[in-house]
Structure formats: structure tokens, C-alpha cells
Specification:
Radius of gyration: 40 Å
Strand content: 25-35%
Structural class: alpha+beta
CATH superfamily of the largest domain: Resuscitation-promoting factor rpfb
Number of domains: 3
Low-confidence stretches: 384-444
Helix content: 25-40%
Number of helices: 9
CATH topology of the largest domain: Resuscitation-promoting factor rpfb fold
Length: about 450
């Protein structure tokens, strides 16, 4: 009896032991099966641009921290103003991954919390901006954009500071001006009716195209006067001269180095490299026509300089006439000296240190010849004989030569004229070009 009872007791204890062990194992497995997934974040759960689907909160925090550290190692946020550029260091951004993960909502996107040291950013920005714009920039808008870039973990970004400066207000200033003496009634009437021209950012402006699109028509003389005034105005800026021409003779009222010839075949074109637009303002005054360029101050200071003129004495063309007595001489035409000037642009920084010097153009106005009539000597016959190796007759008309192909030849002639002045009467057919050395500028022909 006792043996049977002991066996029964052992069986009962064994069954209970197996039951409890099995229950604990099966229960843990059942919990993991039905409840463990509730601790994993569902699809669509994000912090900033970081997907946390299938992660636990602890894993999510680790992933966010890894992504932030990766961004700090590779981020480059450039800030630019015209030609000046700098970088906002990633160290100026303070991320808050724990708070970001704590406020996330399952299945939804939550922002990545980040702060930026605007005091340090302002110090960087002030180095780029000209002093008049220090107080004009919208720092709050800039701060929001910097935070947005960091919160989205964008590694490569560029911010144009001009976009944070109000278009209207004190930021718009007269950055350059020029006055040209003129009494051209046609031009002054046009200026009174059209006081402003907008020069759009990142575009090439063509004066001829503008007049055509506006349905306006001016004479070549009026167009050239206006073009010369515009050219003188934009020289001390960062605008790039694309196309510009000069005449054979410097027109009255226009200073040497500042002429811009415009007609049916010639144009004045220039490029505005800035992202913002500028306005050319025309005003009639007692001194003539004033042109003012209005817009944001430039990052650098620009100075246009016209060098000392180099002069070339005119040659004398001898023509023999049977109407004059032997030995008699008569001046038929008085010539003019030729001129050569170099136009340069100097760039200075905020501390008045010269950054660079570039040659914009070399303007050459060839001399016009003296024409002298002489009587025939006894025994002479009117013919094409030479005096001092000169032609005896000046051709009545010069033929225009191809502009681009004559630069080197005319430059050699200028040097020879300067080195060995001659009184011979050999007239030079063709037009001497104004040599251009500025990038892309066409300044190579003259009006006949």
C-alpha cells in the first residue's frame, strides 16, 4: 500500500513539475508571439528624414544619433553674396535626438529637433556683406532655413544672402552713376518718357534688343550717346561687358575710354552676374544726361580707370595739282592725331586692399591724314610718283576691312607709326580696330 501511494505521489509531483515548466515556456513564447511586436515601431514612423520602422525606442535613438553624427561629418552649408563665399560649420548646430525620439508618434513623422548658434553665424555673414546691409538682412528667416537644412540632414546646401534682404527699402542704393554732356533733343525726349530700364539678374542685357522689344526707335547718334552713358555707368561694377564698339573718331561730348557705338550693325551687351536685378535710372539735368545704377551694394568696390592717352601724329598725303604754280603748296585737309588708351577695372575689398586688376579694353582712334596740294615742278608729269615713299593721291574712299582679322595688323602699324613717324602720303585703307582684352567683349571695329 505504501509503495503504491509513493508511486502515485511521485507521478503527481512529476506531472505538476512538467506542467509548470511547460506553462512557463509556452507562456513566454505566446507573449513574444502576440505581444512582443507592440514594442516595435510601425511603418511610417520617422524622425526627420530617418525611418524608424521596425525599431524599438532604444534602437531608434541609436539610429538617430548615428545619422546625426554622419551628417556632421559630411555637411557643407555654403553662404554666398555675389563673389564672396563662406561655410557655416556643422559644429554650430546642436541636435536633440532624445527629445526627438521621445516626442515621435507611431506611424507618423516627427521633426528632428535642432538648434543653431546664430551669434556665430552672424559673425560669418557680416564678413560677406557690405556694411550697409548689416542691419538689413532678415536673420530670423535665415535661422529658420538653416535649421530646416539641418533637420532634413541635407549634406550639400547653398544659401544666397541676397534672398534675405528686402527688395524695397534702404537696401536699394545708387551704386554707380555717370553724366554725359548732350543736348540731343531726340534722346532727352525719350529719357523723359522712359526713365528706367531693369537689368535682370543672371542675364545678358542687349540695348538693341531692348529697344526693339519696347517698340522704340532712336537714331544711331542718340543710341550711341545713351549707350556710352550706360557703359560708363556699369564699368565700375561687376558686370561683364559682352559686346561693345567704338567709332573711327571720338564723338564730341564723350570722354575717351567711355564710348559705346550702337547702330543697325553694332550693339552694347553686358551680363549681370548677380542673382538680383538692378535698375538703370535716366535723368535729364543741366549738365546733360545722368544715368544711375540702383540696386544692392556690391560685395567689392570697383574702380574704372582710363590710362594716359598715347598719341599718334597724322601722316601727310601729297596730291599734285596742275592748277598750282611750281613750288606752291596748299593744305587741303588738316589731319587729327590718333589716340590709344587702356581701360582697366580695379577691385578692392572692404579694407581697401586691391584684390585684382583686369583690362577691360584698349580703345584706338586712328589719325586722319593731312592732305597737301602741290604744284607741278617744271618737267613733272602728273602721275602716281611718290614723295618720301608716299602715294601721290589719297583714295577718295576707304574700304572697310573685316573687323576680327585686322587686330594684329593694325597693332603692328600703330607701333611702326609710333617708332618711325613719317610724312609720306601712303593712306591706310581699312579701319583700325579697338583691341579688346576683356572676357568675351567685342570691341573691334570702328565707324568708317
Amino acid at each position: 500500500m505504501r509503495s503504491a501511494a509513493a508511486v502515485k505521489l511521485f507521478v503527481i509531483i512529476a506531472i505538476c513539475t512538467i506542467y509548470f515548466i511547460s506553462f512557463s515556456q509556452i507562456g513566454a513564447l505566446a507573449y513574444e508571439t502576440f505581444f512582443a511586436d507592440t514594442d516595435r515601431l510601425p511603418a511610417g514612423t520617422m524622425v526627420g528624414p530617418i525611418s524608424l520602422a521596425g525599431k524599438s525606442k532604444q534602437e531608434a535613438l541609436q539610429v538617430v544619433e548615428e545619422k546625426v553624427n554622419e551628417w556632421k561629418a559630411n555637411a557643407s552649408i555654403a553662404v554666398v553674396y555675389q563673389e564672396k563665399k563662406d561655410v557655416i560649420p556643422a559644429s554650430l548646430f546642436t541636435f536633440q535626438p532624445e527629445q526627438s525620439v521621445a516626442q515621435m508618434v507611431s506611424g507618423r513623422s516627427a521633426p528632428l529637433l535642432v538648434l543653431v548658434d546664430m551669434q556665430a553665424c552672424s559673425a560669418i555673414i557680416q564678413k560677406l556683406l557690405p556694411s550697409p546691409l548689416d542691419s538689413a538682412i532678415n536673420l530670423k528667416k535665415l535661422e529658420n532655413d538653416l535649421i530646416d537644412i539641418a533637420a532634413r540632414l541635407q549634406t550639400q546646401s547653398k544659401l544666397d544672402l541676397a534672398a534675405y534682404i528686402p527688395v524695397d527699402g534702404d537696401a536699394q542704393q545708387a551704386v554707380s552713376s555717370a553724366v554725359i554732356k548732350t543736348s540731343n533733343k531726340e534722346l532727352l525726349e525719350w529719357v523723359a518718357a522712359n526713365p528706367m530700364i531693369e537689368i535682370k539678374g543672371k542675364q545678358i542685357f542687349s540695348l538693341a534688343s531692348y529697344m526693339k522689344e519696347a517698340g522704340k526707335s532712336l537714331s544711331s547718334e542718340a543710341m550711341s550717346i545713351m549707350a556710352s552713358a550706360i557703359y560708363e555707368t556699369i564699368l565700375p561694377t561687376n558686370f561683364t561687358i559682352v559686346e561693345r564698339h567704338t567709332s573711327r573718331e571720338l564723338p564730341d561730348g564723350i570722354k575717351i575710354g567711355y564710348e559705346a557705338k550702337v547702330d543697325d550693325r553694332r550693339d552694347l551687351q553686358f551680363y549681370n552676374p548677380n542673382t538680383t536685378a538692378y535698375t538703370l535710372s535716366f535723368q535729364k539735368g543741366e549738365a546733360g544726361l545722368r544715368v544711375t545704377l540702383v540696386g544692392l551694394p556690391f560685395a567689392y568696390q570697383y574702380v574704372a580707370r582710363v590710362g594716359n592717352a598715347e598719341y599718334f601724329e597724322p601722316r601727310t598725303v601729297v596730291q599734285y595739282s596742275p592748277l598750282l604754280r611750281p613750288g606752291e603748296r596748299q593744305l587741303k585737309q588738316s589731319g587729327k592725331r590718333g589716340m590709344l588708351v587702356k581701360v582697366t577695372r580695379e577691385t578692392y575689398d572692404g579694407q581697401h586692399h586691391r584684390v585684382r586688376v583686369e583690362t577691360i579694353a584698349e580703345d584706338f582712334y586712328p589719325p586722319s591724314y593731312n592732305i597737301e596740294l602741290r604744284g607741278l615742278e617744271v618737267g613733272d608729269v602728273p602721275s602716281d610718283t611718290n614723295e618720301n615713299s608716299s602715294s601721290t593721291e589719297q583714295p577718295a574712299n576707304h574700304e572697310e576691312q573685316a573687323d576680327n582679322n585686322q587686330n594684329s595688323e593694325q597693332a603692328d602699324e600703330k607701333q611702326n607709326d609710333q617708332q618711325s613717324p613719317s610724312t609720306d602720303g601712303q593712306s591706310e585703307n581699312g579701319l583700325t580696330p579697338s583691341t579688346n582684352v576683356s572676357g568675351g567683349q567685342k570691341n573691334h571695329d570702328h565707324e568708317k
